[in-house]
Amino acid sequence: MQETILVTGATGTVGHEIVKQLAMQDVNVRAGVHSIIKGENLKRLPDVDIVEIDFKKPESLHAAFTHIDRLMLITPLSEGQLEMAKNLVDEAKKQQVKHIVKLSALGAGASPGIKLGQWHREIERYIEESGIPYTFLRSASFMQNLVNYHTESIISEGKFYMPVGEGKVSYIDTRDIAAVAIEALTTDGHAGRIYDLTGPEAISHSEMAAHLSEQTGKEIQFVDIPEEKARQAMRSQHMPEQIVDAMLELYVAHKSGKSSSVTNTVQEVTGRPPHTFQQFAKDYHECF
């Protein structure tokens, strides 16, 4: 009998990729979305069941978790993410889910670490205390964030802006995070494991700009900006102050070189090397 896997945050950058790759496996895929309308693009995928999850409505959680065998837990970066995650774990326990794979953050185990890591570690501990077998995917920052947050300025100005100086970051392609998630969700031997996931190299943002320029055929520049300017930009997008502070703390880590560690975990788990940034730039060049 086929197992059923629920993916929360299924319309997000990583969640969508996981659903897409899971749809090619011999499992039933249930994609948890905040809005059925936003989940429309998932309906094109074969054998994917779309279910709406409203964290404030317990009945929606119950419906989403009915007959679920495994859970891919992804929560958005928001002020309510801890409550969301705990509600999901509680429901998973009620429904006797066999295994939780959680998308976490690189450095979540550091002490004291940065806020983003602390938040993820709190959720990890809650999962550990639930008694449900788990796997934690502690991921570096995503290459696809350039597509999500910087395409407008790259297209209109040929520039992207961040307060990170020349600090090198071991960015990872979300396709590689998804590939590891698929292994953890569909094969044995991953329970109790914590996987630190990075790309194959640490790269500066100026080097990223050079690769983008090469692949798009137009000049693209990285512009280092002061922290306060970045704060103002995030505030203008109505980002909560707590999240603004956490993002700036992450940028400080990037700038100081604390995000440059590289692991071989993607290769070890999937049997193939992770995508380089050069390959990402080639595959996504039309976005820029």
From TrEMBL:
InterPro entries: Ergot_Alk_Oxidoreductase, NAD(P)-bd_dom_sf, NmrA-like
Domain of life: Bacteria
Pfam family, one: NmrA
Annotated SUPFAM superfamilies: NAD(P)-binding Rossmann-fold domains
Domain NmrA-like: 1-254
Protein name per Swiss-Prot or TrEMBL: SDR family oxidoreductase
Originating organism: Pontibacter aquaedesilientis
